[in-house]
Amino acid sequence: MDQKLSLTINGTTIEASPGQTILEVARENDIHIPTLCYYKGTTNVGACRVCVVEVENARSLVASCCMPVSQGMVVMTDTERVLTARKLVVELLWSSGDHNCLQCEKNGNCELQDLVYELGIEKPSFEIAPPSYAVEDTNSMIQRDLNKCILCGRCVRVCNEIQVHEVLDFSMRGSHAKVGPAFDEDYIESTCVFCGSCVDACPVGALTFKQARFKGRPWEIEKVRTTCPYCGVGCQMDLNISDGKVIKVTTNRDYGTPNQGMLCSKGRFGMNFIDSPDRLKTPLIRKNGELKEASWEEAYDYIAKKLTAIKKKSGGDSIAGLSSARCTNEENYLFQKFMRAVIGTNNVDHCARL
Amino acid sequence: MTNSIEEIEFTDAILAIGTNTTENHPVIGSCVKRAIRQRGAKLIVIDPRKIGLVDYADIWLRPTPGTNVAVLNGLINVIIDEGLYAKEYVAERTEGFEAMKKAVAKYTPGHVEKITGIPADNLRTAARIYAEAKSASILYAMGITQHSHGTDNVKSCANLAMLCGNVGIEGGGVNPLRGQNNVQGACDMGALPNVFPAYQQVANDDARARFEKAWDVSLPAKPGLTIMEIMDAAHKGDIKGLYIMGENPMISDPDLTHVEASLKNLEILVVQDIFLNETGQLADVVLPSACFAEKDGTFSNTERRVQRIRKAVEAPGEAKADWQIISELATKMGYAMQYASAEEVMNEINTVAPSYAGITYGRIEEGGLQWPCPNVEHPGTKYLHRDKFSRGLGLFTAIEYRPSEEVPDKEYPFFLTTGRVLYHFHTATMTRRSEGLVERCPESLAEINPKDAEKLKIKNGDFVTVTSRRGSLKVKASVVETPPEGTIFMNFHFSEAAVNLLTNPALDPVGKIPEYKVCAVKVEAA
Question: Of 1.25.40.10, 3.30.70.20, 3.40.50.720, 3.30.2130.10, which CATH number belongs to A129-275?
Answer without folding.
Answer: 3.30.70.20
